[in-house]
Amino acid sequence: MPTRNLPCNLDDAWSIVFDHYDPADEGRREALLALGNGYFVTRAAAPEAKADDIHYPGIYRAGLYNRLESHLEVESVQEESLVNLPNWLPLTFRIEGGDWFSVDQVEILSYRQTLDLRQGVLHREIQFCDRQGRQTRLHEQRLVSMKQPHLAGLQIELTAENWSGNIEIRSALDGQVENNNVSRYDPYHDQHLVPAIAEPLEPEGIWLMMRTSQSDIDITLAARTRVSIDDQVAELERTLDQEAAYMAERIQAQVEQGRAIAIEKIAALYTSRDLAISNGAEAAREAIQFAPNFNDLLDAHQRAWQQLWMRCDLDIAPVEYLCAMRLHIFQLLQTVSLHTADIDAGVPARGWHGENYRGHIFWDETFVLSFLSWRFPAAARSILLYRYRRLDAARYLARKYGYQGALFPWRSASTGREETPLYQFNPLSGRWMPDHTHLQHHINAIVAHNVWLYYNITRDTEFLCEYGAELLVEIARFWASIATYNPECDRYEIHHVVGPDEYHTAYPHADTPGINNNTYTNLMAAWTLCHVQKLFDLLPYSRRNELWHTLQLSQDELDHWDGVSRKMQVIFNQDGTLSQYEGFEQLQEFDLQQFEQQNDDQRVDWVIEAQGKDINQYKVAKQADVAMLFFLLSDAEVSDLLERLGYEFGRSQMQQTLKCHFQYTAHQSSLSNLVYAGALATFDIEKSWQLFDQVSFTDLSPEANTGTEVGIHLGAMAGTLHILQHCYLGLEIENGKICLNPCFPNQLERFCLNLHHRQHDLQIKKVGTELNIAAAPTNPNTVQIFYQGEPVKLQPGDLKTFQLRQADASG
Ligand code: BGC
């Protein structure tokens, strides 16, 4: 059992608990305990706090970006960023005209902050003593409604323990905010909002409207604050405080020793991009007028979460993993939920929880897609539609590079243009380093693979016909056009790209960036070209005709794709393992162990550049690269793909490949351990578990120091759920049928998962050395599944038991 210092309540595995205030850890906790609903996210900052060295109260609406121009030493750039919105939280008080309450200014007698995952509520309980010796108890509850996505609520209950007197309450909407979460971005401009309107709201409350400076999006917050004494709403004296981009109400109340007073603030957030509104300001004001009180808002919110958990909960042991997985499900659903389904937003690498990577969309959606497709197909579909809407932008990008078809950018935001910066700052050397990571064209294969995965799980033929097919065809077209024929070896090659390992973006001393024949890229390109042929067999005849007509396809083009898919170049090392790319084997050896001993967790590329050397010279990888193949595809699929290309490649070579690549990987992305945990599941289950263990606590473990304060690691979080479901339980859909090929690590003492597939509910439970599969009595008819390749029929109410293979069973 790991002896980690985890903030989990292990009695029921339903809450994350911090029992002391730690200013140094506050930033991480703000992201880890953030609340959201797929429409917007609010960091768990103290409501009395402004952004400073300790606190950062960020509010983000899914997919809301703005572009600013900055003049850097090396170039002028136009960076698009997820915008930190006006803050709805500000709520504080002062006693007898003293200091405004702040957790940093009082003596804390006791402190407890709890994220209740089951109910979706954040609690903060503080007992404190102020400078005058007055002792007060504070209990704050907060929610961002999962039921009414534009509403959020905050309730603070105060109990004067040894005093009576006047308190003044200040409840504000604060638009005096900037994007300041990531210190690395200090050289860039960060003022995205311009003030528009701040006014009182009739009959009660305040509202504030701001506008993004370039994307011209209106953002309106409206809020209503009420004070109750003895559960009765009190009529109290109110005054207004108004500044540019700031609006507050001050309320005077009398407090008596021992009697609690409750302050509740309900806020509404709307933007001019929302649906079912005339304008955002009117919608926000109206939402507050009709908003329920805190308790009713809470009640509806809790019932919404109850429904979500009925679809998503699982049961595993040891219990700390269960708690971590529930946190991962919770944060995933707060980032992408059914409320996101109508929003034009992709899957941000760090959730909508912080400003790292400016909220850009990379390839991380691939780690969330299978979990969502099984449970919330509409949310999964919206992720793919984010890509479809940017298909024209992807076509332009392909043209820009001189290729055909569509090329999705490595980093995208609102328009689908390439957002990857051309330079990155190295804080160790103080120099700007050229950044060629935009050459990660492999992202195209991920979009194609995701279309296929989603369709396989959901059989959403309408999506495939109207959107998915066009995506696949245009991506296939791109791969066929970037592949160049090399007559010397009679193979197609892909040059000038970058693989998932971002440390290698050029050959040493080369004039142009990019490397050739990255194995992962080449094989996924071949995979796409094979699957586009399968696609045509799935489409109804009429749709196939339409596609041929509108996309001007021809048999010659298809024959060419087939040819490329059979002759793609793959580079092998001398020992027969897959090479990362052409020339990688010839690079200089790098002593990673020694480096890590001498440099702790420092980024290898930064250290090497600071030493005046080029990382491209060395055999050291930032993250899993070739291994990604084995994460996405089964070993049978990999060997079929290679066989089609005329290469023989067995399991022992696969195992050897993974072993050799793992040795030179620095795992400086949270996705690296994740990908290896998945890739190794069928080859080395012990190692796979060790990595799963590490990645499960990327954000939770305070020791990990992984930069959670600038956003959660959403891909790693969701990826652990994928590993449980796909790699350990071995759940897959093949030709529309559920297939199970379990491969459980011994450490996983308990495992239980509910699945809903089409009209059937199944419960799959590992009990000791057996696996029970139960079909719900309410299923409409028999369901057929394949257990380790053998067909099994389950009638409604049936329970079938299977013996797990020796190595897969435990306890
Ligand atoms: C990784 C990418 C990843 C991105 C966002 C980078 O550090 O290299 O693979 O998509 O982070 O998670």
Could you characterize what this model shows?
There is one protein chain. The protein is an alpha+beta fold and 811 residues long. Helices cover 30% and strands 25% of the residues. The protein has 20 helices and 32 strands. The strands form eight sheets. Strands 1, 8, 9, 10, 11, 13, 14, 15, 16 and 19 form a ten-stranded antiparallel β-sheet that branches. It has a five-stranded antiparallel β-sheet with strand order 20-27-28-29-32. Helix 10 crosses helix 12 and helix 18 packs parallel to helix 20. It is globular and about 90 Å long. The model has no long low-confidence stretch (mean pLDDT 96). Bound molecules: beta-D-glucopyranose (BGC).
Gap between N and C termini, in Å?
15 Å
What's the helical proportion of residues? 25-40%
> How much is the radius of gyration in Å?
27 Å
Counting helices, strands and paired strands, the structural category is alpha+beta
**Share in β-strands:** 15-25%
How many strands, which pairing sense, and closed or not: the largest β-sheet?
10 strands, antiparallel
Low-confidence stretches: none
Strands, count: 32
The ligands bound in this entry are: beta-D-glucopyranose
Overall mean pLDDT: 96
Silhouette: globular
Number of helices: 20
In summary, what is this structure?
The protein is an alpha+beta fold. The protein is 30% helix and 25% strand. Helix 5 (365-375) packs across helix 6 and helix 10 (519-538) packs across helix 12 (555-566).
